[in-house]
Amino acid sequence: MTDPIEALVNALPDPVFVVGPQMRVTAINAAAARLLPALRKNDPLVRGLRAPDVLDAVDRVLKTAQTQSAIWLDRFPIERHYEIHLAPVKLADSLACVVTLHDVTESRRIERMRSDFVANASHELRTPLASVLGFIETLQGPAKDDVVAREKFLGIMAEQARRMARLVGDLLSLSRIEQNLHIRPSTAVDLRSIVAQIVDGLRAMAQENQVDLRFAAGPPVVVLGDRDELLRLAENLIENAIKYGAPSPVDVSVESREGQGVLRVQDHGPGIAAEHLPRLTERFYRVDAGASRAKGGTGLGLALVKHIVARHRGQLSIESELGKGATFAVSLPLSGEA
Questions:
Q1: What is the pairing mode between strands 213-215 and 250-257?
Q2: pTM for the complete prediction?
């Protein structure tokens, strides 16, 4: 006859095991067996679980018959956090402890990302705001009647205000994209015409930076997408190439390949060191923070690109070598109308 405790444990989705007298494992479900392969029924708990805090909590439950909780950080093979709930259960002739493990790794990661995001956003806004307030106080005081200083300070204040406006705009765009991340765009749009529009709009910037912006004409490449978001995506990639690849040429191409519409933006500038590549799409991550801010960057451009690509169920690849430029490629599913 099946042990009712064992049957109950096996019906639970979370990793669960039961510890009886002499700290021996009396039942273990499949999820716990996968998580703790060294854990064996009828073996002492200490053989299968090397976590002193958890072992002490189990011992307290068996001695006091009171519910306990614990936190366990498992560092192998990858770091994972578990909240552990330990509850007493009365068996026929003894007291046992039911141990339930709840994986909170993802929720902790998200919480850490959220707190980092708030701290970074606050820092990015604090600097230009402090600058504007400082110049206002100066204009209200020592430079009140200084026409030359007033014109200079007003110009700096205007630039700082534009920087804050860009940052707020990017934050709002990122929030909107994240809210709609689960909704895949279903409108057929011509990726080539979108890119052509952005290239035409950025030619003046390219000339100012002595960049030869090259884009070849070709047939339509129709993908499923949100036109406004794809305009933003193309603008960010091409503008970055102009700013950070200058004064080298920038090559932009759009083509159909294996059921995908592929946008490639390649510069021939200084390139990006390998250690930076995995983090380029993180919010507020910059290879050179000073240079980025000086060129009007908010640190959110590639994070926006990543989220737009994810919403379109596409792929983003980044290739670069120091001294050999960088290539950003976005692949999006073609529309059935292509």
A1: parallel
A2: 0.62
